[in-house]
Design goal:
Helix content is 24%, strand content 31%. The protein has 455 residues and is α+β, with helices and mostly antiparallel strands.
Length: 455
């Protein structure tokens, strides 16, 4: 789904942002008190546990000189929606000299007791002898507004230490940790985590608490929990059921970039999306008011969503296999076709249907084994030659959702080529995959698996 590539993109951003280590408590109040998301990162602790793996992560940083990597880092989302990173400065002149030598930065100027520069033309940097703040992305025509915003952050008498989110952050363990309002997270992360909540939930009332450690073999393990602002647990999400292992014999195409296994009550899931006013992209066309929503509503049991392609604009191509309550639901499509001529639904020779949904190709039908099979995005045969077999992990059984992202498949793709100033590929090449699992009760886990080096 859209959420799969979005989910990947946001954690790449957070991982890179975290690596800009920050200074001590005297400086973190540059972050506005009302910021809805805060991330901290203990670079020293991570380096001691990960060794060369941690050193490799710093290779993606645009700066090295003048930054104090011995202090914890803070990343945040500002009240007006910008991404920010605050880092400790131990020598502002060294920092200025490195920036002046790099073609990736604009010329350094000084005003309002701050040094100023732009990175990659769209990230505003400002620093003094204590802290460096990076904020962006800078939209064309907004640079003056951005500079005023940054100046106000440096000069404000109120900082993040007054925020209850910061208090929660300080209580957590782990090398890296995050506390954020679900509503403020970019759709790539929010979409995946929102699977754990009812569609009608007020995202402003849900808080994500996430902690991270480096486990054996260099694995990065993130434990996530959703809580309400009063400290309770969100209501259980409708439309999700335990996955029972029914997709273990399915095959994935050789170019598959990610897959997601779910247990679904499709009717409740489609109704849930119908009540979600903020549903966008693929989720919007999954609503029960479209033919795709009608097809999804027929799912009862296990489902497999495979991401086969993603273009530079984030448009996806999906392959879906799922159990259905009654394969005879296809008989109702004929009447739906007559009642909705605007959807241009066409019957195919194999007994399935094809049309365009949300401007994208959509085809669906029932296989001989009674399973629903769909393709969304690129036009292709519903049943082509499989290029590889995926042995789905046994641990997925019993979970509500289990997703896996094959990171090498994303390296060099147009969508990620420009992400984080072109440095996303550097991070992708360090890891073989990301696994997301949700077992219920508002708790989920994310694991980044490093590429194993042959000795």
């Amino acid at each position: 789904m859209n959420v799969m590539y979005r989910f990947l993109g946001i954690w790449l951003l957070v991982a890179c942002a975290l690596c800009f280590a920050s200074c001590g408590k005297a400086y973190y109040n540059v972050i506005p008190e009302s910021s809805p998301a805060i991330v901290s990162f203990d670079f020293t602790q991570m380096a001691s546990e990960a060794g060369e793996d941690a050193k490799a992560m710093t290779d993606i940083l645009p700066l090295k000189s003048g930054i104090d990597f011995s202090q914890p880092a803070y990343g945040f989302i500002s009240p007006n929606g910008y991404y920010g990173v605050v880092v400790a400065v131990n020598d502002e002149d060294d920092l200025a000299r490195e920036i002046q030598k790099s073609h990736d930065f604009s010329a350094v100027d000084r005003s309002s007791d701050l040094h100023w520069a732009l990175w990659k033309s769209n990230w505003q940097l400002a620093w003094n002898d204590e802290a460096l703040l990076m904020l962006g992305p800078v939209v064309a025509g907004e640079q003056s507004f951005m500079r005023r915003t940054v100046s106000a952050m440096f000069n404000s008498s109120k900082g993040i230490d007054r925020s209850p989110l910061f208090e929660s952050l300080e209580k957590q363990g782990g090398n890296a940790k995050m506390v954020a309002r679900l509503s403020c997270l970019p759709a790539l992360l929010r979409g995946m985590l929102a699977l754990q909540c009812p569609g009608s939930v007020d995202a402003d009332s849900v808080i994500l608490e996430s902690s991270c450690i480096i486990a054996d073999g260099g694995r990065i393990v993130m434990d996530n929990e959703l809580k309400t602002t009063d400290g309770g647990n969100p209501a259980k999400a409708s439309g999700l059921k335990q996955y029972n292992g029914g997709m273990s014999g399915e095959r994935l195409a050789g170019n598959t970039k990610a897959f997601m296994l779910m247990g679904m009550d499709g009717e409740k899931f489609a109704e849930r999306l119908g009540s979600e006013k903020s549903a966008k992209g693929l989720f919007a066309v999954l609503k029960s008011t479209t033919v795709m929503g009608k097809v999804i509503a027929a799912i009862r049991g296990d489902a497999l969503f495979s991401l086969e392609d993603i273009d530079k604009d984030g448009n996806v191509s999906l392959h879906i296999v799922a159990d259905v309550k009654d394969p005879a639901f296809m008989d109702s499509i004929s009447q739906y076709k007559k009642n909705n001529p605007q959807e241009h639904i066409v019957k195919t020779p194999d007994g399935g249907y094809e049309c365009r949904v949300g401007g994208k190709y959509f085809a669906f039908g029932i296989r001989k084994d009674g399973k629903l099979v769909c393709r969304y995005g690129k036009k292709a045969e519903l049943q082509g030659e499989e290029k590889s077999v995926q042995a789905f992990v046994a641990g997925a059984k019993g979970e509500m959702c289990h997703a896996k992202f094959f990171l090498p498949e994303f390296v060099g793709t147009p969508f990620f080529a420009g992400l984080l100033g072109g440095k996303a590929d550097g991070l992708l090449r360090k890891y073989s995959g990301i696994t997301y699992s949700f077992s219920g009760e508002g708790r989920s886990k994310i694991v980044l698996e490093p590429i194993k080096q042959v000795k």
